[in-house]
Design brief:
The protein is of the alpha+beta class. It folds into 2 domains: 188 residues, no CATH class; 73 residues, Alpha-Beta Plaits (2-Layer Sandwich), CATH 3.30.70. 62% of the residues lie in helices and 11% in strands. A hairpin with a 6-residue loop joins β2 and β3. The radius of gyration is 21 Å and the shape is elongated.
Amino acid sequence: MNRKKLRDLLLITAGTFILAVSVEYFIIPFNILSGGVAGIAVALEPIFHIDETLFANVTMLILLIVGRFFLGREFMKNTIISSLLYPVFTTLLSKYPVEIAIDPVLAAFYSGLLGGAGISLVIRTGSSTGGMDIPPLILHKLTGVKISTLVMITDALTVLLGIIAYDVAAALIGLISVFSSGYAIDKVLSFGTGVDSKSVQIVSKEWETIKCRINKELDRGVTILEGKGGYTGEHRPVVLCVVSAKQYNHLLDIINEVDSRAFVITTDASDMHGEGFTYSSPNI
């Protein structure tokens, strides 16, 4: 196993475990309405009386299979590790409950922070935690509607579902979890980058391979600039691309795998417009 795969495996494992802690020690014990399968499990338990952990685990596996059908083999490969680890961690943690005596509002806040941090650690590897991340991706593929909008709608419907079994106060507490989760995701994904995007220029003899892998793996377009060596006088194409902050490490991995001697110039990009930035892409 190379260094990148080991790093990704550790991040996926850590992120999935943190998400499981959020669910088992905060969301389920305090009956917090939130986004994701855990939020649905909490909302439906008073109606159908199904164990929340069992319901969440089964739903995760079903959604993984549905995602494979609609989104393809690559999605399955990127998501299966987290999706399989999640029920293992939640089942283990449910057998060792920890009583945390805090106000439900604080529990909602910290459940969101922990859950968001865990999810974003997994996302940084280019993977997904599965679960309720999958329906927005499928709807985006079928309708073209922005993923961010679909995620907000999914979480809102989950919280509204809880009003049927609980009340408006429970839904308002659930929104605290949703917003704190979004805050944590934003901060963890941007940690170490300073800005939302990077503009990267790549000079390499293997520019065509790099270009193809950027198109395929990052779903980003590139611009080919004409370059000329100041010393050799040789004409050499320069690959120019702009990627989101969370895609930057993946881009560097691609470059190093294809041509470890490639010359790379990176600058912060703070104002982008057009496809993939003002219009969302599934991989962003």
